[in-house]
């Protein structure tokens, strides 16, 4: 009996799904089955798939990009899905869904492939939105814009700055919603970290505001809030251990900031000398 035989039958199919998420060199694997699932890997190794209450919608083949999206449903309590409630980092999360049948445990097929593009909360569920890998082939490439502000994303490819050289460690003392308190942030002027990044473990949070030791994030970071609310206890002293996080400064995309704050003017992607008057507007520019 083969996968094709069962798949084409009218009533013999007992399908299960395997979900593989890849972020750079980090791979997370889950299965829709009630128990852990083991499959054969390369070189005689075994791959373990963690059971999770995850499900996805119907896979649709369409020429319309938006209709080709896939939605995955997770319980609110699942720590992996909660990571995506924070702003997505520069590393894309690629999703591959494999489909198999219980009668043929050693044979699966790649059912769908794409990348995670967002997440939202609906009641007691987390909904992950993923788009098909083929949808990116239909989109035009990003073109350079003629503008005064820098067109590059901070710490991105065009910017050229290495974020690893700009991390500053600090202790998080309080979290309320999308607001975090870090005394280390007060060592710098206000708005120094606005537009920057807060990192807690694998999670990244985009900083939209900074005043003193207070940081405002674009979204809440549930894992950080849980860690502050219930910190680990030092087994020797009995005192709560500090909650450590990293900060990277932000940029307002202006040439003066690029030069003075980062010394990166050679990679500035804006055109600050654009004239204030449009030479094609019909009026005099003299």
Which structural traits does this protein have?
286 residues; mainly beta; Thrombin, subunit H; Elongation Factor Tu (Ef-tu), domain 3; nine-stranded mixed beta sheet; seven-stranded antiparallel beta sheet; globular
Task: Note down, in words, how this protein is organized.
The chain is mainly beta. The chain has two domains: about 120 residues, Thrombin, subunit H (Beta Barrel), CATH 2.40.10; about 80 residues, Elongation Factor Tu (Ef-tu), domain 3, CATH 2.40.30. The radius of gyration is 24 Å and the shape is globular.
Give the topology, please.
Blueprint: H1 3-7, E1 15-23, E2 26-31, E3 37-40, E4 46-51, E5 55-56, E6 70-75, H2 79-82, E7 94-101, E8 104-122, E9 125-132, E10 168-172, E11 174-176, E12 179-181, E13 197-200, E14 203-211, E15 214-217, H3 222-229, E16 243-248, H4 255-260
Parallel strand pairs: 2-4
Antiparallel strand pairs: 1-2, 1-7, 3-4, 5-6, 6-9, 7-8, 8-9, 10-16, 11-12, 12-15, 13-14, 13-16, 14-15
CATH class bucket of the largest domain? Mainly Beta
What's the helix count?
4
- Architecture of the largest domain, CATH level 2? Beta Barrel
Instruction: Sketch the major β-sheet.
Output: 9 strands, mixed
Side by side, the strands of the main sheet go: 3-4-2-1-7-8-9-6-5
What is the overall shape?
Answer: globular
Cα end-to-end separation: 83 Å
